[in-house]
Amino acid sequence: MGFSITTWNINSVRLRMPLVEQLVLKHRPDILCLQETKVPNELFPHAPLRAMGYEHIIIHGQKGYHGVAIASRFPLTEDHRQDYCKVGDARHISAVFERGGRRIRLHNFYVPAGGDEPDREINAKFGHKLDFIEEMKLLKANGEVGTSSILVGDLNIAPHEHDVWSHKQLLKIVSHTPVETEGLLDVMKRGAWLDLMRQQVPINEKLYTWWSYRAKDWEAADRGRRLDHIWSSADLGPHLQRIDVVKEARGWERPSDHVPVTAHFDL
Question: Which of 92, 127, 195, 252 sits at 20 to 30 Å (Cα–Cα) from 238?
């Protein structure tokens, strides 16, 4: 029995619902995890998602900022939101679904971007990001008995050398500084998470999911970063069929600077 999960920082779900419809029409993921929805819960666009077959929707939003959502063709239970760093941001949501007799906890994250200056002494946003990552180290892939785990989202860190267009030039740029990359790799190690994208694409090959709005010709320059991730508990690793990075979405009309990433599983 197969299923697919797409993660996408949509950068305003109401503004870019036509892009969501375009993605679903072509790729038809079973579960859609969105970040940076930028909408309070009462204004979330349930109707168009349900019209596309996503009858089961859980949301955690706020006006104008952040926000995460899971829209599924399968029933979702145990809706949970964790308030990381206790600042009231809508940056995490999780739920349970079942496929092939397996119970799976799905986490959807939007980690703080961290601002421009990689120094917490002068940049509170960077300090917030580091504290958020520190709290994520408590999240275990095998934390619930009898439950597999999947973690997706915009984690705003490109942890490996070939997750960025130039390792040397980005070492002092937020998203690829050593304190961030080491922190995220420690989250994976302590939580026993598998990096499913790097299970499919060798670590010495370039792999990006984000291209800056600042680039006049993003495709020709190809100065990307892998900021979006899909992880799982070890038991799901052998069931991964493939990972699709929908790079073409970066060139769609009025795009997000992130592109959708889809994991396909066969149980």
Answer: 92
